[in-house]
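Reading group handout, session on sequence-to-structure problems. Before we discuss, look at one worked example. The prompt was deliberately terse, the way you'd type it at a terminal:

> structure CGLD27 family protein

The input record follows.
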Amino acid sequence: MMESSVSICPVPTEQQPINEYQELQESWFFRWGTLDLPNYIKKLVWVWGVSWMVAGPWASASFAPTRYTVQFLLCGAAGAGVFLALTLLRLYLGWSYVRDRLLKETIFYEESGWYDGQTWTKPPEILTRDRLIVSYQVQPILKRLKRTFGILILLVFGGSLIWNFL
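And the output record:
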């Protein structure tokens, strides 16, 4: 029964929420949110570490590493943290966009360009499937990203406390 509803779906294949979700799952970058915890952390540490290539010289220009070692480390870590935060934000925005498309009862799509937008109302079985995907697949990813943001904020707060005592 679900196959017949899917086959009459007028939404172009690449704009169907289920296909957008599968595309994110298979994407090199957005798949990071689906990795097991050790690999997820490795990716984030890698981004933070590579970000030091920009943040380190900037921090050393502000604080001589040999004279102000702690300030240099805190400034560089914060600078690298900005790149990490932007990476996390991009992951979050991508997954939340797909979540919103999966949750919506009515889907907006474009047939051939920006000037001919249409809407399509999902049949109940597709809406149920999409909402189950959100509940069991997408929400845990968003929850992990929110927790990661929270940890990053705590680290920034801790760094600022250390900075105040220098």
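Points for discussion. First: The helical segments are 2-7, 17-26, 37-62, 69-103, 124-164. Second: The chain has one domain: 2-164.
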